[in-house]
Design goal:
The complex is a heterotetramer of chains A (about 100), B (about 650), C (about 350) and D (about 170). With about 650 residues, chain B is mainly alpha-helical. Chain B has helices spanning about 5-20, 30-55, 85-105, 115-130, 135-155, 160-190, 195-205, 210-230, 235-240, 245-255, 255-265, 270-275, 275-300, 305-325, 325-355, 370-385, 390-405, 410-435, 440-445, 450-470, 475-480, 495-515, 520-530, 530-535, 540-575, 580-595, 605-615, 620-645, and strands at about 60-70, 75-80. In chain B, strands 1-2 form a two-stranded antiparallel sheet. In chain B, helix 17 crosses helix 20 and helix 18 (about 410-435) packs parallel to helix 22. Chain D has a domain at about 1-80: Four Helix Bundle (Hemerythrin (Met), subunit A) (Up-down Bundle), CATH 1.20.120. In chain D, helix 1 (about 1-25) packs antiparallel against helix 2 and helix 2 (about 30-50) runs antiparallel to helix 3. Chain D starts with a helix and ends in a 7-residue tail after the last helix. The chains are: A mainly alpha (about 100), B mainly alpha (about 650), C mainly alpha (about 350), D mainly alpha (about 170). Chains A and D meet through helix 1, helix 2 and helix 3 of A and helix 1, helix 2, helix 3, helix 4 and helix 5 of D.
Chain lengths: ~100, ~650, ~350, ~170
């Protein structure tokens, strides 16, 4: 069997699904953030795979992955500083505890 | 010069940003910068106007700059210079500059002075960008920025609750209209695939748009106009907008916000021409608004409210003019109205500045104390009532002529009645302010003429209000600036104009007779027609109606749901079903309470299930929202696979 | 004359044909030869620390007017080996209440990237394990993994001093990574490639007949880049004066407090291997790699390269025994407020120079 | 030959990636989850390299492993309490989570199989660094600058949120 585009895409779909599952079910905010990183990576995998299989010789897909990575970094930094800030206030990282605005 | 046309909008925009951030260190706290920017815009646009008059610049002239691409569609920003846009740009930048100069005097000791000028500049920039836009997208951006600015400026003195509420009201009401406008934009893009005015015009010309579609688009766009230009039934925000500082009122009413709505109809005239029914709707909404607002103005006691209702009424005229096919007449009136309404507002501001009240009945005999204001207000009044020879005379005649010429005799009659009412209430306001006896000695004694920075703009505007008509009324001039994109104006018999003029004079006479005398007759008349007077005084109870029909039920519903959140659902979820029995009794008692209170919302069961659904959707638990998103994603993917099929 | 490159390549050719002759597929033979190459690199990198530890002890001793190790072997040469044997037989302690898995993995995560990092290093003419097109970036990327190991060590010990040491260490490593990478950017800008071999090769020849065309001799840019690279590298290897993560007087021994025996030895190995790596990079980036006055003559290029590398290693040792330790906040300030701005200025200067030379 | 090797390596990496991802979302200890995520990101970098994206692979390692994950571990170390690994780590809607993520995976896989089956590439990997550089500073310069702005904003935001209450002004 030779490596084909849909193998990579299937892998990315599975990783994305795992990420979705994590984002839906982790109690810990950090767990959610990590799951989101998984989803980001699934998307990046797709981009690189499309680049490799559909447009060989070009690098546009890879350039977009660079953007994805950069934005993921920005997202993670802001998210983590928010988590830290929340932790300072309510001494917990569990989502259901973050209900200060809840009546 | 024409290549720099985009600077017209860009300069005030830059000024707004500079004032906002660095105003503290600029001369006159940044006001000088805003005025200079506006004057520069005025200079550029005036120069362009002169070029057009010389014949060195051919209209229309379009400049494109690529902006971004989505798929096959290219978006651009650009400048479309044609007659209407050029005339309006000149008017807007000129009036805005004058208003800013005036504001330096008017606002000199107000707090947030710098921010005020920043907003004024941004407001002007947005309007200029809108007027110059060569596509609907840019138009819409300017439109929305103006919406935001109006919110900031009407609620500028937000320390007073009324001002804040008025800002909210203006924003939300116009937003209701914007919804239609937005839907119209989407429809245009869906049907035609471009936002560019010229291209759309070509498509319309080639008959690529069915009458059916054109009607839908035209009516949706007209929703935006109804909101922005304060037409019935969305006119309610405009009188309340008087809570803003007077220069703001002048800017909103004369040059920027409300003009945008009329301009929208003019820009989209191609759609309306394809859709005669839509045009009919426009004409009747305009005509109804014209007479409707005029009747309210008759009983208003606040000088600014009188002017506000007169604005609504005049806007009705313009809309009606456009609706009956008088394209050039409507735009002409827009231009002249900008001049004399700005004048009237600024003069009213000068009066308020001097006597510190808005109430007509507390003024009187001010002509002696404030001669400059008196004369300028007088010229504004004459222009507004359409006194022979003033600018208002020419434009209003044209609108009425167009109405008659297109066989809308009833609208013509309404227009004449409106003219009568206009003369009447303006005479009333004018007499109460300037003539007769001073009714409050204290105020009268302390009244004084305003500073030069306020008077000079008034004088310039007075000249414009009186002279603009002579300058522009010739058919060839109008043809040059407002070339009719459809049928030509029909010829009308001369008596049509005379009747309109006559009804104006009649208004003057009746008003003078009533209000120059002892004023006792006025009181008697008011009590004789007490129900009518009360109805007018309360503005036909429109506000109350809206409050009862829309605002209160929404509030009640929110209260209801909130109550459920707090008392029913929380407990079910917290205590579990073990305490269902006690909860049940609570629900029962609650239903009793609310039934007694008169708020009926079906039975307790339906309310409970409704609340439970609302509660499930809004439980403040982020991952649950995420679950919903995921569900939707799954549904979409499934739908895609099922319906779109395999490639 | 004594160039090793041709000998090696000939040997591997022979090896491959031998393998194919004995029933291996060409791919299998290729994998075999690459595996042997990798084995050589791993062996070299594992042996270097033994030399370096000995050198460190001797250098420190001489600086302090002592003799250093003298008893095991002649001049104490075998002292390090003896220590290694001792560490090998020490008890392997895993603290109660620690995260066992993380504790065991930590030293491995710290050490294993080092070996990979040597892949694109040009030890001499024809002596590049793999000439990667993204060499410099590759080294920076892979060596970044070790930071994770430091954090794992801090967490996996179940000890607050270790945890603090790990946190401090990671903060320091991440911070100094930035000026370190930026200091190399001018080099990449001038030579237009990231391959270490190409960069070293581009620095051959002389200016005005006497000055080698090494990057360090580029006016201002070269020196500034080298100084920043050197300082940041010292910090990256957790050596004094930047040894905050393992500051004995404050944190017992930082993140490797709870590690004993072979695991401790692995941390040590990593530190010295990174020192060697940084020196080798500096030699290739700033000192022309295997280029020398008589390269191609009777002194082989690998000797030049190792000579330059060890000269820079000596500077590392020198620093350690000369400067006092910085306080933790000063350390970070130095990085963010001094090194980072100046490395950015340096990048700008390099751009300006390139622009002006056109 | 080479293709087979690539396929084998890919299969190994794929299994590894899926396993590590599962650890990320199921592990009771968040720290271990983060370590697994780090490894998973490394594996993704490996797949990138396999697909001829060497520069992206190195960037992935440099930024994710060398940057993001370290900060994440930092926050985990700062925000964990000793008893945390005794807590339940999944919430009440995990059944739905399994259901819907499975649905998504199935839908995506079906679609991918239908559309992209049998697309092969036998191109030799070429160096991409220079090409990416030219693309980023040429055609894509506007998004590039925009991303820089986003990063700056993120930096400022992070610093602001990181400040103690008293330090905010």
């Amino acid at each position: 069997m030779i490596l084909s585009l849909h193998h990579v895409l299937m892998l990315s779909a599975i990783v994305f699904g795992i990420g979705v599952y994590g984002a839906l079910t982790r109690r810990n905010v950090l767990g959610i953030l990590m799951s989101i990183e998984l989803m980001f990576n699934a998307a990046s995998l797709n981009l690189v795979a499309f680049n490799h299989f559909l447009h060989p010789g070009e690098v546009r897909g890879q350039a977009i992955v660079i953007f994805v990575i950069t934005l993921a970094a920005a997202e993670a930094v802001v998210g983590l500083s928010l988590v830290l800030s929340i932790y300072r206030n309510i001494k917990s990282v569990y989502t259901e505890k973050m209900n200060l605005l809840h009546g | 010069m024409v290549d720099y046309a985009y600077l017209i909008a860009l300069l005030p925009f830059a000024a707004a940003i500079l004032i906002f951030f660095f105003g503290r260190w600029l001369p006159v706290k940044g006001a000088a910068l805003g005025i200079l920017a506006c004057l520069a815009s005025f200079g550029i646009s005036f120069d362009l106007l002169m070029q057009v008059l010389d014949g060195t610049l051919k209209l229309p002239h379009e400049i494109h700059y690529p902006w971004f691409e989505v798929g096959l569609f290219q978006f651009e920003w650009g400048v479309l210079l044609d007659g209407p846009s050029l005339v309006l740009v000149v008017a807007v930048s000129g009036i805005s500059a004058l208003i800013q100069i005036y504001s330096v005097g008017y606002m000199h000791d107000a707090p947030r002075f710098k921010r005020f000028f920043s907003y004024l500049s941004l407001f002007t920039a947005a309007m200029l960008a809108l007027v110059l836009a060569n596509n609907y997208l840019q138009f819409f951006i300017g439109w929305e920025i103006m919406g935001a600015c109006s919110y900031f400026l009407i609620g500028f003195e937000f320390e007073r609750d009324a001002a804040g509420a008025a800002g909210n009201k203006a924003f939300l009401t116009t937003r209701l209209g914007d919804l239609g406008f937005y839907a119209g934009l989407l429809t245009i893009f869906f049907v035609i695939g471009t936002f560019n005015f010229t291209q759309i015009q070509n498509h319309l010309h080639d008959g690529n748009v069915s009458t059916h579609m054109a009607t839908i688009i035209a009516l949706l766009l007209f929703c935006g106009t109804v909101g922005k230009s304060a037409q019935f039934p969305l006119h309610v925000w405009l009188p309340d907008a008087m809570e803003g500082p007077t220069p703001v009122s002048a800017l909103i009413h004369a040059a920027t916000m409300v003009a945008a709505g009329v301009y929208l109809v003019a820009r989209s005239y191609g759609f309306f021409l394809q859709a005669p029914q839509a045009l009919e709707v426009v004409a009747w909404v305009g005509g109804f608004t014209a007479i409707f607002a005029a009747t309210i103005a008759v009983t208003a006691d606040d000088v600014k409210k009188v002017l506000a209702y007169s604005t609504i009424s005049q806007l009705g005229y313009m809309i009606m003019g456009l609706g009956v096919g008088g394209y050039s007449a409507g735009l002409f009136h827009l231009t002249t109205h900008a001049a004399f309404k700005a004048l009237l507002f600024l003069a009213a501001g000068s009066i308020i500045h001097s006597v510190h009240t808005n109430d007509l009945w507390k003024m009187g005999s001010l002509s002696k104390q404030m001669p400059a204001t008196f004369w300028t207000f007088l010229s504004g009044t004459l222009a507004l009532v359409g006194f022979w020879g003033t600018s208002g005379y020419f434009s209003k005649e044209m609108i009425l002529g167009a109405a008659y010429g297109s066989h809308h005799v009833l609208l013509y009659g309404i227009g004449c009645a409106g003219a009568f009412l206009t003369s009447f209430y303006m005479t009333r306001a004018f007499s109460l302010i300037f003539l007769g006896d001073p009714r409050e000695r204290d105020r009268f004694a302390h009244a004084h003429e305003s500073p030069w920075s306020m008077i000079v703009p008034l004088m310039i505007l007075a000249v414009a209000a009186l002279g603009l008509g002579w300058f522009m009324h010739a058919p060839e001039t109008l043809e040059r600036f407002f070339p009719m994109p459809g049928r030509p104006d029909a010829a009308v018999p001369p008596w049509v104009g005379l009747v309109a003029l006559g009804s104006g004079f009649l208004g003057l006479a009746v008003g003078g007779a009533l209000y120059l005398g002892s004023l006792t007759l006025v009181g008697q008349l008011a009590s004789a027609f007490a129900p009518l007077h009360k109805l007018l005084k309360n503005k036909y109870y429109i506000d109350e109606l809206y409050w009862a029909v829309f605002v209160r039920p929404t509030g009640k519903l929110a209260e209801l749901l909130a109550w459920f959140d707090f008392n029913v659902i929380d407990r079910i979820f917290v205590d579990g079903f073990g305490q269902a029995a006690s909860l049940w009794s609570e629900i029962q008692s609650w239903i009793d309470d609310h039934l007694v209170d008169g708020v009926v919302n079906g039975s307790g069961w339906s309310a409970e299930s409704l609340g439970a659904i609302a509660r499930r959707m809004q439980n403040g638990f982020v991952q649950n929202y995420l679950l919903v998103i995921t569900m939707t994603l799954v549904a979409l993917l499934t739908a895609m696979e099922t319906f779109v099929g395999k490639h | 004359m004594f160039e090793l490159g041709p000998i090696f390549s000939r040997a591997f050719q022979v090896l491959q044909s031998w393998g194919i002759g004995h029933g291996l597929s060409p791919l299998g033979a290729w994998i075999l030869s690459k595996a042997i190459q990798a084995g050589i690199v791993v062996l070299l990198v594992s042996l270097v620390p033994i030399v370096l530890v000995y050198a460190e002890r001797k250098v420190s001793a001489f600086m302090q007017a002592r003799l250093g190790p003298m008893n095991v072997g002649p001049y104490g040469i075998l002292q390090t080996l003896a220590d290694g044997v001792k560490l090998f037989f020490k008890e392997d302690i895993i603290p109660v209440g620690s995260d066992r898995l993380v504790h065991i993995l930590a030293p491995m995560v710290v050490v294993s990237p080092v070996f990979v990092c040597f892949a694109p290093v040009p030890f001499g003419k024809g002596l590049v394990p793999i000439d990667l097109d993204i060499g410099v970036l590759f080294i920076f990327a892979i060596s970044g993994i070790s930071t994770i190991g430091v954090l794992m060590a801090g967490w996996g010990s179940g000890n607050k001093f270790s945890m603090l040491g790990g946190l401090r260490g990671a903060a320091q490593l991440v911070s100094y990574e930035i000026p370190r990478v930026l200091s190399v950017v001018p080099v990449l800008m001038f030579y237009g490639t990231q391959s270490l071999r190409s960069i070293a090769a581009a620095q051959q020849g002389l200016w005005h007949g006497f000055l080698p065309r090494w990057f360090i001799f580029y006016p201002v840019v070269g020196q500034l880049a080298f100084i920043i690279f050197l300082i940041a590298s010292v910090a990256e290897t957790n050596r004094t004066p930047f040894d905050i993560p393992e500051a004995e007087s404050e944190l017992v021994a930082g993140f490797h407090t709870e590690f004993s025996g072979l695991k401790f030895a692995l941390f040590f190995l990593a530190e010295y291997a990174y020192t060697f790596l940084a020196s080798a990079m500096a030699a290739a980036l700033f000192f022309g790699g295997g280029d020398g006055y008589s390269a191609g003559g009777w002194i082989p290029s690998w000797f030049w390269f190792l000579g330059k590398t060890f000269a820079i290693v000596f500077m590392f040792l020198w620093f350690r025994w000369t400067f006092p330790r910085l306080r933790v906040d000063r350390l970070m300030q130095f990085c963010w407020k001094f090194l980072l701005p100046w490395s950015l200025v340096n990048v700008g200067l390099a751009g300006l120079m390139i622009l002006l030379r056109k | 030959m080479e293709q087979t090797l690539a396929t084998l390596i890919f299969a190994g990496l794929a299994v590894l990636l899926i396993g590590l991802s599962l650890v990320v979302v199921t592990s009771r200890s968040v720290f271990r989850g983060a370590i697994a995520l780090t490894a998973a990101l490394g594996v993704v970098a490996g797949i990138f390299a396999l697909l001829g994206a060497d520069f992206v692979a190195a960037s992935q390692l440099l930024i994710y492993v060398g940057g993001i994950m370290i900060i994440m571990l930092f926050v985990i170390m700062l925000s964990q309490r000793p008893q945390d690994h005794l807590d339940r780590q999944t919430n009440d809607q995990w059944v739905w989570g399994v259901l819907f993520s499975l649905a998504i995976v199935c839908a995506l896989i079906l679609q991918f199989r239908a559309v992209y089956r049998g697309v092969f590439a036998d191109t030799v990997a070429v160096p991409t660094t220079a090409a990416i550089g030219r693309l980023l500073l040429g055609e894509m310069v506007v998004p590039f600058e925009a991303v820089s702005l986003v990063l700056l904003a993120a930096l400022v935001g992070a610093v602001y949120f990181g400040l103690e209450k008293g330090e905010r002004r």
